[in-house]
Amino acid sequence: MAQLSPRLLSFLYCLLITNFISQVSAANNTQNFHYFCDHDNDRGDYTANSTYHTNLNTLLSTLISNTEIDYGFYNFTKGENTDKVYAIGLCRGDVEPENCRTCLNGSRANLTELCPNRKEAIGWYEDEKCMLRYSDRYIFGLNETGKPTYYAHNEDSPTDLHQFNEDVNTLLYNLSRRAASGDSRVKYAADNISSGSNGPIYGLVQCTPDLEESECADCLSRSIERIPMDCCKDSKGGRVVRPSCHMRFETSYKFYGDPAFVPSPPPPPPGKTITIIVIAIAVTVVVIVSVFVYIRFKRRKSWKKFESATNDFSDSNKLGQGGFGAVYRGTLPNGQEIAVKRLSANSRQGDAEFKNEVLLLAKLQHRNLVRLLGFCIEGREKLLVYEFVPNKSLDYFIFVFKFHVCLVRVNEDETKRAKLDWDTRFKIIAGTARGILYLHQDSRLRIIHRDLKAGNILLDEEMNPKIADFGLARLFVVDQTHEDTQRVVGTYGYMAPEYLIGQFSQKSDVFSFGVLILEIVSGQKISSIQHGEETGYLCHIAWRRWSEGRARDIVDATLNNGSESEIMRCIHIGLLCVQDNAAARPTMASVVAMLTSHSFGLPLQVPTAPAFYGNAKSGIFADMQLWEINSGTTRSNETTNRSDQDSLNEASITEPYPH
C-alpha cells in the first residue's frame, strides 16, 4: 500500500473530526426537541420522492424562507386532493423573526428525520421557542387540546403552597385573558407576580393565532387545570404544551424576553388621511341609513318567519316558562332547530332585560354558554332566538317530585334521573364552573350573572351544560370588585346574603354556584330538603352533616357507583362557596382548580357556616317564589303561578354602553 502524504493525512483527519462534530451537534439538536409522529398512527405513510413528499419539502422550505412575516406565525398549504399538505409554524412571542426562522429550520430537519415518511408530525424546539407541525388533514383554526400533549415540571416545591397555587392561578388566568384577546397575528402574553416568600412567579401563555378568542381561552384554561394533576403538582415551575396552545410558569428565573412583535394598525399615508376620514364618514352614514331601512322592512318578515317556525307559538312547541316569558321550539325553513324566547308583553322591565341580554350575549362565546343566534322586535313583541339545546334544563332531570298521582309519573322521573349518574353530574358541575369563570375572568367583558340556578343550566345532547338567561346580568369594569344596588332581584335561596342587603360581586355568583353543587349532589331543591324529621335549607343541613362527619347522608341515593372521594370533595367545595363571609369564598378560578385536583387529594380549607335563611317549617320558603328587595323593603310575588325556579321580572340594569 502506498504511503499517504502528510498533507493528505492531515486532510483526512480534519474530515473525520468535522464529521464527528457534525454528528454530535445533530444529536444535541434533538435533545431539546419534543416530537410526536402521527400519535394515533392513522394518517399513513408517504413514499420517498412521491408527490406528497415533494409538496412537503417545498412547503417547509417556503415556510422558513419567508421574510415578509415578522410576527412568528405561518400557516401554508401546498398541493391538491390527497397530496395536499398543511403546515403551521409558530414561534414564541419573544423570539425575533431571524431566530424564529432558524428555530423552525432546526425543527424541520429534526422532524423529517425523526418521523420519516409520516404524513402527520409535530415538534417543539428549544423550550417551545418554536413549534412546527404538518399533516395531510386540515389543521388550521382547530382547538386541539387532546393528544399529543406533554408536561414538564420543576422538582423543587414552594414554601407557602396554598398562597403559591392561588398566585399561579391568578397570574396564568390573567395572562390567558390577555393572550386570547390578541388578533390573528399574535395571541401571546407574559408577565410576573409577587408571591410573598416564594418570590416572583414568571408566567407565559400562547395560542396559535388562528383560534377564536373563546377557543384560545378554553385551550389555556384546560392547560391550567392540569397543574395540580399531570403537570406539576406542588412544583415551583411547570409547563403544559399542546398543539393549539402552551403555558409555562417558573420561580427560578425569567425564562422569556421582551415581546418580539407588538401588533398595531399601520398608519395611513399622510396624503390620504383626510380622504380616508371623509370616505369613512360617508360610508358610516350610508350604512346607518341602510340598516334602519332594512330593519324597518325586514322586521315584520322576521317576526312572521319565527312565528311560522314555532307554529304560531303553539303550546305543543312550548319548552318552558321563564321569569321573562315562554320559550318555544322552532324549525327554520332550512331545517335548523332553534329555541325562541318570547318576552312577556306585559313586563314593565322587558325593554331593559331584552337589551341587556342581546348586548351581552352578542359578545360572549363559550361552549358552556347558550349561543344567541338573533333577535326580533315587532311592536310590543320581542323575540330572542337561541341555539336549540335538546335536553331542556338541569332542574327537569335532577329534582324528584315528592308526590305522584300515578305510576307513570314515577317511572318518568326515574328515567330522567337515570341519565344523571355521577360522571354526568360531575361533568355538569365542572362545565358550569368553566362557563362562570369565562364570564368573570376570561371574556372581554366582566359579567355577573345574578341568576344562576338549575333552571338556567341547559343541557345539550351529550349532557354538557350551557348557562342561559342573562336578563339580570350586570357588567363590571376590569378592576371593579363590587356594586351596590337599591333593587335586588333573583331567586330566593340562590341569592348571597350580601346581595339581600343590596351589594353584589363575583362572589355572589360563587354563592349561587355553591348552592347548585349541593343540589346536584343531593338531587333536592335548595328549599325542600328533608332529612329524617328535619326539613330546612339545604346549605344548613349539608354543613351540619359535614361538620358531624356525615356528609354522605345528603347524597342522592341513586348515586351508588360514583367516586366517593369525588362526591365528598364536591360537597366540600360547595360549602366553601356558600360561606356567609363573601371574602372567604373562593374565586371561580380557584373552584375550577379544586374541581380538577380531586384525585390527588389537594387539601381544602375548612368552610365556615353558610348564611342563615331560616327554617322551611316556619313558612320562610312557603309561596316565596319570586323576590324583589327595593330600598330596604322586601316582598314576595305570591300571586303568580310560576315555580320557585323562576326569577322576578323586575331589574335595574347597568347599561354596558352609552346611548
UniProtKB/TrEMBL annotation:
Using the record's annotation, list all stretches that form the Protein kinase domain. Answer: 313-601
Species, as recorded:
Vigna unguiculata (Cowpea)
> What does the UniProt entry say about where the protein is found?
Membrane
> What topology does it adopt in the membrane?
Single-pass membrane protein
SMART domains (alphabetical): S_TKc
Residues in the signal sequence: 1-26
Transmembrane region(s): 274-295
Q: Which residues form the Gnk2-homologous domain?
A: 34-139, 146-254
Region entry Disordered, spans: 632-659
This chain belongs to which protein, by name? Answer: Serine/threonine-protein kinase PBS1
Gene Ontology MF terms in the entry:
ATP binding; protein serine/threonine kinase activity
For this protein, the record's PANTHER family field holds:
CYSTEINE-RICH RECEPTOR-LIKE PROTEIN KINASE 27-RELATED (PTHR27002:SF1104), RECEPTOR-LIKE SERINE/THREONINE-PROTEIN KINASE SD1-8 (PTHR27002)
Give the source's domain of life in one word.
Eukaryota
InterPro entries given in the database record: GNK2 (IPR002902), GNK2_sf (IPR038408), Kinase-like_dom_sf (IPR011009), Prot_kinase_dom (IPR000719), Protein_kinase_ATP_BS (IPR017441), Ser-Thr/Tyr_kinase_cat_dom (IPR001245), Ser/Thr_kinase_AS (IPR008271)
Reaction equations catalysed: L-threonyl-[protein] + ATP = O-phospho-L-threonyl-[protein] + ADP + H(+); L-seryl-[protein] + ATP = O-phospho-L-seryl-[protein] + ADP + H(+)
Residues holding ATP: K341
Record key words, sorted: ATP-binding, Glycoprotein, Kinase, Membrane, Nucleotide-binding, Phosphoprotein, Receptor, Repeat, Serine/threonine-protein kinase, Signal, Transferase, Transmembrane, Transmembrane helix
Polar residues bias locations? 632-652
What is one term from the GO cellular component aspect held by the record?
Answer: plasma membrane
Instruction: Provide a GO biological process annotation.
Output: response to oxidative stress
